[in-house]
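Re: [help] complex structure
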Amino acid sequence: MRARGLLIAILMLAALAPVAAAEQRASLVEIEKQVMCPVCGTLLQLAESPQAQREKAFIKRLIAAGKTEAQIKDALVVEYGNEVLALPPDSGFSLSAYVVPIVAFLIAALALGLGVWRWRRAGGPKDDGTPRAAGPSGEDAERLDADLARYDL
Amino acid sequence: MSARSFIVVLAVLAVVGLLVFGLASKGSSRLEEGDAAPTATLPLLDGGGSESLTDYRGRWVLVNFWASWCPPCRAETPALEEFQQRHGGPRFTVLGIDTQDLSDDAQAFVEKFGLSYPQLRDGNGDTADEYGTTGVPETFLVDPAGKVRLAVPGTVDEEYLREEVEPFLPNGKS
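Output below.
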């Protein structure tokens, strides 16, 4: 029984190892999509300026040195600051970039829901005494239909 | 004022506030003659501590924003070094600020040109923004009181330094 459990554990580890290795392997193409060219203000992927070329060379050097994607992004932040990341980090003040839109959406949804609930509770649109536009009388409707029929192609 | 009106006014104020903040933070204009030079503290390029422009109060300082990837910076650097050799001293210095650049590339640049004047590092470009630069190179002459006396967008050369900067400096080796 113990041997069987051990075998299962080994098989699971063997199955997970390539996944972990794939997660850690860095690629220039993937990193270029996640970082900015600070001088151009665009994704590095789209930039060809001299500064972008140096940044790409820097990433290639770190990949060749066996650094992971996270380590390379950290190194870029050390060089250029947080602005180099296309997506702000999900910690500290930058977290507000993710939280504020969600909170704003929830507040808007809540306000909308509350408004609809109150409107339905009040029984729909109120009759404020304003005369509603009436349709044409029977005679007018017949004349209108006849007129329209004359324009039929 | 009813609660509903208060919420509406608050929402409008929030939107207006965001718009104003967005416009205000969109970027400052280039510093001009008479403006106070920003005094942010920046790390030294060689990693040996940090400095602020306030550390240079009492001296004339020629602040030069540059980057190793910038060809015009390479073109003007020998003239700046030569100017520093002639005038650098207790009353004047060129001060390089390497901006939006890789520190190793910048160090190699300093060694290649044998630059003797102090170098600070502005990796994220915030200080360059404070000066209102729109690119590199840009150069500012700051007087001993910390006021900008000259602002030069683009390269400086030997002639410009001799004719425009030199007259401000005290006589002799500054």
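The first strand of chain B starts at residue 41 and ends at 43.
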